[in-house]
Amino acid sequence: MNSRTIAVTAALLLTVTALSSCGNTIRGMGKDAANTVNATQDAGNRVEKAAK
Q1: Residue 30 phi/psi, 5° resolution?
Q2: How far is residue 51's CA from residue 4's CA, in Å, rounded to a whole number?
Q3: % residues pLDDT > 70 (the chain)
Q4: Which of the residues 1, 13, 31, 43 has an alpha carbon 20 to 30 A from that of 24?
Q5: What pTM was computed for the model?
Q6: What is the DSSP letter of 8?
Q7: Does residue 21 register a pLDDT over 90?
Q8: Buried b or exposed e, range 3-12, using 16+ CB within 10 angstroms
């Protein structure tokens, strides 16, 4: 193996690692947004019940 092959392999591994990290972050942000919507709806329902 020459140094060019090693450099290309290292760059590919780094790219794959970075992209998988981004995927996890985006998925986590989606879950956080969904939890925020659910919490807001629950709070609205509690306020509505308290007002009755």
Answers
A1: -65, -40
A2: 71
A3: 100
A4: 43
A5: 0.56
A6: H
A7: no
A8: eeeeeeeeee
